[in-house]
Design brief:
Strand content: under 5%
Largest sheet: none
Structural class: mainly alpha
Oligomer: single chain
Order of helices and strands: HHHHHHHHH
Radius of gyration: 18 Å
Helix content: over 70%
Number of strands: 0
Number of helices: 9
């Protein structure tokens, strides 16, 4: 399983490195989202600072949808999905490899966006450990949930419009938990951010286990 995960993940990352979609399309889109929100709240800097965690994770969520759509668009071209079924690779390895490649792309975007909110919104990091742990757990949750529902929508003609309808309601706990945990990590609230981190870890663990078990059925049925 782990060997097949490395094979699939390496393949997806090589394709992205050669096409540079993440750096030329997704990353500028994410920065543009932050800039638009920054201009919208420019007259109220206190509100902009408090809204920074939510704006950050909304941008990450939108970018995750683009990354998932891109990942499964590669498998839909030229009958690649049939080749994936016949390859003999462990479906659990395929799931982990694709989710891992998406997660790595999101991490790169999050570092870029984190620098963006620090510069554009003037935020300061009060609890870096909570900040990093939240980002890791939320990224795993978004990548695994997106991979599962990306495979569900992969075989449909309306997958581009169906995927957001499937994913957005499911990942609402990630958006809520990550925003609240980051507000605590940035010193914007006195709430316990580690309690929200526990929610994110539980969400990520559930989808990792569910994906390992159920992905073989999704590959065959898609």
């Amino acid at each position: 399983m782990w060997r097949d995960a490395v094979v699939i993940g390496s393949k997806d990352l090589r394709v992205e490195m050669r096409s540079r979609v993440t750096t030329t399309q997704v990353a500028p889109y994410a920065i543009l989202v932050l800039l638009l929100f920054g201009f919208a709240f420019d007259q109220d800097h206190a509100l902009l600072t408090r809204a920074a965690p939510g704006l950050f994770w909304v941008a990450v969520l939108l970018c995750s949808l683009l990354a998932v759509q891109r990942s499964f668009a590669l498998e839909s071209a030229d009958g690649n999905r049939d080749g994936l079924r016949l390859s003999g690779l462990d479906p659990a390895g395929i799931f982990l490899g694709k989710a891992g490649a998406i997660a790595l792309q999101l991490v790169i975007l999050e570092v870029l966006l984190g620098c963006g909110i620090a510069v554009l919104f003037g935020t300061t990091f009060h609890d870096p450990l909570l900040l990093v742990c939240t980002a890791i757990a939320a990224t795993v949750g978004l990548a695994t949930a997106g991979t599962l529902y990306g495979m569900v929508a992969a075989g449909l003609r309306v997958r581009e419009t169906l995927l957001p309808l499937l994913v957005l309601p499911v990942v609402a706990p990630v958006l809520l938990g990550a925003t609240q945990a980051w507000m605590s990590a940035l010193g914007l609230t006195t709430g316990d951010g580690w309690r929200w981190l526990a929610l994110l870890v539980s969400f990520a663990a559930i989808y990792v286990m569910f994906g390992i078990v159920a992905f073989s059925t999704l590959v065959e049925e898609s």
